[in-house]
From TrEMBL:
<dbReference type="GO" id="GO:0004672">
    <property type="term" value="F:protein kinase activity"/>
</dbReference>
<dbReference type="InterPro" id="IPR011009">
    <property type="entry name" value="Kinase-like_dom_sf"/>
</dbReference>
<dbReference type="Pfam" id="PF01636">
    <property type="entry name" value="APH"/>
</dbReference>
<feature type="domain" description="Protein kinase">
    <location>
        <begin position="1"/>
        <end position="84"/>
    </location>
</feature>
<dbReference type="InterPro" id="IPR000719">
    <property type="entry name" value="Prot_kinase_dom"/>
</dbReference>
<dbReference type="InterPro" id="IPR002575">
    <property type="entry name" value="Aminoglycoside_PTrfase"/>
</dbReference>
<protein>
    <submittedName>
        <fullName>Protein kinase</fullName>
    </submittedName>
</protein>
<dbReference type="GO" id="GO:0005524">
    <property type="term" value="F:ATP binding"/>
</dbReference>
<keyword id="KW-0418">Kinase</keyword>
<keyword id="KW-0808">Transferase</keyword>
């Protein structure tokens, strides 16, 4: 399981034209700033990475099951709550 920044979807600089130097610099600085945030077991670890209605099953007795872990990664826990 990779850290979030090792996954291809975060390699967004390849989509920004090389002549857009200011935008590329801002994007790179932002990514580096997030990478440098303090990590601890209370704020960072293994997450689902794709929590949304289609990946959460609720039974009649209210048991909840999460499915589809293909996008799991190590990330800040808050990511699961904010991305979807």
């Amino acid at each position: 399981i990779n850290d979030w920044y090792e996954n291809e979807e975060y390699n967004f600089l390849k989509y920004i034209p090389k002549d857009e130097t200011t935008i590329r610099e801002i994007a790179s600085d932002l990514l580096n700033s997030i990478k440098e945030l303090q990590k601890s077991t209370s704020n960072y670890g293994f997450i689902h990475g794709d929590l949304w209605l289609e990946n959460i099953l609720v039974e009649n007795n209210s048991n909840v099951t999460m499915i589809d872990f293909q996008d799991c990664e190590k990330h800040f826990y808050i990511f699961n709550r904010t991305i979807n």
